Amino acid sequence: MSRALAPFERRLGEVVAVDAVGAYRRLRCTDPGGPVPRPGQFYMLATAAGWGGGEDERPYLPRAFSYLRHAAGELEFLLEDVGPGTHRLTDARPGEGIWLLGPLGAGFAPPRDGREPLLVGGGIGIVPLAPLQHAISDPTDPLGTGQGRVLLGFRDEAHAAAAGLMRDATVCTDDGSTGHHGLVTEVLDERLGEHVEVYACGPPAMLEAVRLMTGERAVPAQLALESGMACGFGACFGCVVPTHDGYVRVCVDGPVLEAGDLEAVPAP
Amino acid sequence: MTTLCGIELEHPVVNASGTFDAIAALRAFGDEVIERFPFSAFVSKTITLEPRQGNPPPRLWETPAGLINSIGLPNRGLRGYLEHDLPVLARLPVPLIVNVMGFTREEVATLVEAVAARDEVAGLELNVSCPNVESGLIMGADPAETAALVERVRPLTAKPLIVKLTPNATDPGAVAHAAQESGADAVSLVNTLRAMALHPRTGEPWLGAGTGGVSGPAIRAVALAQVAQVAERVAIPVVGMGGVETGAHAAALLRAGAGAVAVGTATFRDPRAGARIAAELAELRRKERVSAGP
Prior knowledge:
The complex is a heterodimer of chains A (268) and B (294).
Chain A: E1 11-21, E2 24-30, E3 42-47, E4 63-66, E5 69-71, E6 74-79, H1 84-90, E7 97-104, E8 116-122, H2 129-136, E9 149-154, H3 157-160, E10 169-173, E11 180-181, H4 184-191, E12 196-201, H5 204-216, E13 221-224, E14 240-243, E15 246-249, E16 256-258
Parallel strand pairs in A: 8-9, 8-12, 9-10, 10-11, 12-13
Antiparallel strand pairs in A: 1-2, 1-7, 2-6, 3-4, 3-7, 5-6, 13-16, 14-15
Helix pairs in contact in A: 4-5
Chain B: E1 2-4, E2 7-9, E3 13-15, H1 22-29, H2 32-35, E4 42-43, E5 60-63, E6 66-69, H3 77-89, E7 96-100, H4 105-116, E8 121-127, H5 143-153, E9 161-164, H6 172-181, E10 186-189, E11 193-195, E12 212-215, H7 220-233, E13 238-241, H8 247-255, E14 260-263, H9 265-269, H10 273-292
Parallel strand pairs in B: 3-14, 4-7, 7-8, 8-9, 9-10, 10-13, 13-14
Antiparallel strand pairs in B: 1-2, 5-6, 6-12, 11-12
Helix pairs in contact in B: 4-5, 5-6, 6-7, 8-10
């Protein structure tokens, strides 16, 4: 797994823009002098003002997000307004200060045995796959093995608009409003007979299905997991998931973990 | 410089046990952790005799201005700690205080003896927030239990022994006094306050272990009152902690009678919060000296 080290301190960036990508919001901010992250790594984010004091006096802790894009001293994140932290971040205005800590965690590793990367994303979980696809198509990158294929699943057409953030994606929707009508794992099943390595990120139920399917078919798979975190750098021991060797911390041992090492992808 | 029961500290701000993993931080941030270590001493996570996996997840719940955790003291166990962790921690530029916990007095004695024998260790902190499986009592909730424990381990080392008090006691002042009379060199408080949260959809307990402990700004006022109460009852140094986020919060605990301050949950928001708080505290003290005049 590849990892860029983070500066040992949170730093202040500035919100450049927050715009809509279908049902999601894309937050762009400056990160002057920040390290170049590796695909699959993440950042802890909090607004500099108005973090706390919202509904129920939350949020208090920063929130963990995979980065969508890093270029020219700027970072992009994709957000879904699901709680007090994401609500505040989606509401951020250009010029506002934003605390950044990262890049954190271990990102994706190159495929084994000349396998073709097969990227499988669900909902907001497509985010780490976007920089991964970019790296795969860059021959100078350690992950640059050529063109990987991309399968993405969404609830509906409004969410599926985020598929436009990646190239040449096969899209599935739960309600059939666009693309294939059904689950992304149904399409994945048809591809597992090929010489591929799966790179997946999405809701726990999807990742658990990917873990079981790839395990049965003996296909290697790297899963980018999400977990509630207090710190993001191994201090709190709160974000653990079960592996065959006991609990590991998603923040420092992951977020990208080998599917074959996991006991299960836990659903909160 | 500050001295904490014989341990020389660059400044009065240390970390609270279990809120900073220096070895994990080295993986995330590299050697900058050693070059710019934020605390004036490093207090380890609790070490137990046998390895522990910790509690089933979920282990965290955010509260208004705070955090409930039920981590369950995962650690490599005494042998793993001495073999693998201690040599790495010896690279840190600050004194090392090792926090230990046992389920019987004999277990604690074994831990204290083995840890104190290592030259890398400057002092020990006893986590007394767990039940004695022989009596069923939380060791630190009862003055007699605490006294019996400290009396058992005191003869085993000349190194400083700090007793980490639980706020979930009827009278923390009485427990602190009992620790002092039995030979403790310092007390530290507060540990987390017992707390729980319910799953927003199912109404069942959210945390895998059912309940946990709350920390952060939510408990700052409670911590200040307990530190003041304990400082009044004992002559040994008090390490105060609970919701410290700024130099002013640290100054309040020192004014209430603490000799040093620990930062915990604030580190989760910024890994170098401790250094910022120490700098703010130094600036406050400088201004006080200026205004007090020659």
